[in-house]
């Protein structure tokens, strides 16, 4: 690996993997790598925890920047090669690990560790915990191993518990979802060859559903590892809950416990609910995770879940005053009559990776993400519960005082000559996808691939309704680039398109009511909702 990269050039692991000629290895071209390898590698590269994949019986190593720092002078020699070629002194131990993992066992051990290449005079051994977990294929066969390293000295919680919950939940979820995607794609291909096109919609729906769930897990992980930022829009809380009604019913119907099918869902929304300024997708996810927890807590045939919204005023003497500023707030309350929680569980319920579910059932990120979202939105989350008496979880978000106008967005190709957008991207797949979707939404699209093209087009055409920026194309000084756009076009909304953001603070000064972020993978529905928000923001500014 080292021969292909100049030693004077410091590259990230992601760049090293992208620039390496894999055709000369047993893995072959990256385009031909198995889908589950590509998905897990994306997860590994986009997290801040030291992780390494050993793929196939040859144990080809693929890891992230955090792991590279941990192995010191062994990087980049280890990348793309078997561990025992670079670390022969660990051959006996590693072979024992491989043998056990390929029997579908999880191996975990703790030891003192010193980064290779450092001397005892200049470094202190660190206690680490290493966990090896099997990566399963769609036929439930072991295809490789995923290892995560935790520095015990830096952890205030049990590394064992953290790793077990993370790997158990994610491995189970991802393997299930990947099997759903791959299996349905195979069925679609078979039915096309059999001229049975009438059966395709059911497979398409199933594959889309699995892919959407996988996307939600990835977004949670990126948010937990602080690789995502909140993108606030003006939000109607009642509208958000109404948009989730079908999802709530699906959660109830899909539970294998027949008792859950009879859960009585009650919705009571305050008629003149105040608007809030928060990330709409994170709000949806927070409500959905709380609802899922409520469903799982119900073990009787008279199960009930009530969802309510209220306008409330936090006075200086209000009990919540010690957590949030006094003022006007909206509350979203989810109440169930399930098994409830003990005080000890309530105290830990919002801890990352904490879950009372069996290993492999849930990753334990839901309530942690909901709590983190509300705090970042200058709000608060409370849990009121007693064993066998049910649970009430309330989200409090500050009122947004500017008026909100909701407009219905419909596809209208007749508007194509009136509505225009500028896309700044060098990704051909993204350009094609957005061009087709925006056309259906009534927009024509112009593409700029360089900074020079961008400023030339913006100067010559002042009729763009918004500009979309693929964050991967941003120059080394993105703030200068973005500031120039906003200075010359102060009323022009910006739509940032991103799947992973290493330094989200870059966008802090650019996130306003008229600027937005859309996260990959992009779907027509998500894009339509974002375009609607952009149109609403322009109408709001005009009014």
Written account of the structure:
The chain has 543 residues and is an alpha/beta fold. The protein has 16 helices and 17 strands. The chain has helices at residues 13-19, 35-45, 65-70, 83-86, 91-101, 159-193, 200-224, 237-243, 245-254, 280-297, 343-348, 366-376, 428-440, 451-460, 478-488, 524-542, and strands spanning 51-55, 60-63, 107-113, 126-136, 142-151, 233-235, 264-269, 276-278, 304-314, 327-336, 380-386, 390-398, 419-424, 443-448, 466-470, 494-498, 515-519. The strands form four sheets. It has a five-stranded antiparallel sheet with strand order 2-1-5-4-3, with helices on both faces. Strands 7-9-10-12-11 form a five-stranded mixed sheet.
Question: Would you kindly provide a brief summary of this structure?
Answer:
The chain has 543 residues and is of the alpha/beta class. Helices cover 38% and strands 21% of the residues.
SSE inventory with pairings:
Layout: H1 13-19, H2 35-45, E1 51-55, E2 60-63, H3 65-70, H4 83-86, H5 91-101, E3 107-113, E4 126-136, E5 142-151, H6 159-193, H7 200-224, E6 233-235, H8 237-243, H9 245-254, E7 264-269, E8 276-278, H10 280-297, E9 304-314, E10 327-336, H11 343-348, H12 366-376, E11 380-386, E12 390-398, E13 419-424, H13 428-440, E14 443-448, H14 451-460, E15 466-470, H15 478-488, E16 494-498, E17 515-519, H16 524-542
Parallel strand pairs: 7-9, 13-14, 13-15, 15-16, 16-17
Antiparallel strand pairs: 1-2, 1-5, 3-4, 4-5, 6-8, 9-10, 10-12, 11-12
Helix pairs in contact: 6-7, 9-10, 10-12
């Amino acid at each position: 690996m080292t021969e292909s990269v100049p030693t004077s050039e410091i590259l990230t692991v992601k760049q090293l993997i992208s620039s390496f000629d894999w055709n000369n290895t047993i893995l072959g071209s990256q385009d031909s790598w198995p889908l589950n390898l590509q998905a897990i590698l994306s997860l590994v590269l986009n997290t801040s925890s030291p992780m390494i994949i050993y793929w196939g019986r040859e144990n080809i190593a693929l890891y992230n920047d955090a792991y590279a720092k941990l192995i010191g002078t062994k990087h980049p020699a280890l990348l793309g090669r078997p561990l025992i070629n670079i670390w022969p002194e660990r051959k006996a131990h590693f072979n024992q690990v491989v043998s056990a993992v390929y029997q579908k066992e999880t191996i975990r051990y703790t030891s003192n560790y010193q980064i290779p290449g450092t001397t005892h005079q200049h470094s202190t051994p660190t206690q680490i915990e290493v966990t090896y977990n099997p990566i399963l294929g769609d036929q439930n066969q072991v295809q490789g191993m995923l290892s995560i390293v935790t520095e015990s000295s830096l952890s205030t919680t049990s590394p064992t518990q953290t790793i077990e919950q993370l790997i158990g939940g994610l491995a189970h979820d991802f393997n299930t979802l990947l099997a759903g995607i791959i299996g349905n794609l195979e069925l679609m291909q078979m039915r096309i060859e059999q001229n049975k096109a009438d059966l395709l919609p059911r497979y398409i729906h199933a594959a889309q559903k699995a892919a959407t769930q996988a996307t939600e897990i990835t977004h949670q992980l990126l948010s937990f590892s602080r690789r995502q930022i909140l993108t606030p829009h003006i939000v109607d809380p009642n509208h958000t809950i109404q948009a989730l009604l079908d999802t709530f019913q699906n959660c109830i119907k899909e539970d294998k416990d027949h008792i859950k099918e009879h859960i009585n869902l009650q919705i009571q929304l305050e008629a003149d609910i105040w608007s809030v300024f928060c990330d709409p997708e994170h709000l949806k996810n927070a409500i959905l995770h709380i609802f899922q927890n409520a469903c799982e807590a119900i073990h009787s045939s008279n199960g009930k879940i009530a969802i309510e919204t209220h306008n409330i005023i936090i006075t200086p003497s209000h009990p919540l005053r010690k957590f949030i500023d006094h003022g006007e707030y909206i509350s979203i309350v989810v109440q169930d009559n399930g098994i409830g929680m003990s005080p000890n569980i309530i105290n830990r319920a919002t801890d990352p990776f904490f879950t009372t579910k069996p290993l492999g059932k849930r990753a334990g990120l839901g309530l942690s993400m909901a709590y983190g979202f509300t705090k970042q939105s200058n709000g608060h989350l409370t849990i009121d519960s007693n064993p066998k008496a049910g649970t009430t979880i309330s989200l409090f978000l500050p009122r947004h005082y500017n008026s909100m106008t909701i407009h219905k967005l419909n596809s209208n190709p007749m508007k194509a000559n009136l509505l225009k957008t500028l896309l700044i991207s060098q990704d051909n797949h993204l350009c094609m996808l957005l061009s087709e979707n925006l056309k259906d939404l009534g927009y024509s699209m112009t593409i700029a691939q360089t900074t020079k093209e961008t400023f030339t087009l913006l100067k010559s055409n002042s009729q763009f309704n918004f500009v979309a920026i693929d964050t991967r194309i941003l120059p080394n000084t993105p703030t200068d680039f973005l500031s120039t756009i906003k200075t010359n076009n102060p009323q022009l909304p910006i739509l940032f398109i991103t799947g992973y953001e290493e330094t989200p603070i870059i966008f802090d000064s650019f996130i306003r009511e008229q600027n937005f972020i859309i996260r990959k993978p992009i779907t027509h529905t998500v894009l339509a909702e974002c375009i609607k928000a952009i149109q609403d923001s322009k109408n709001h500014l005009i009014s």
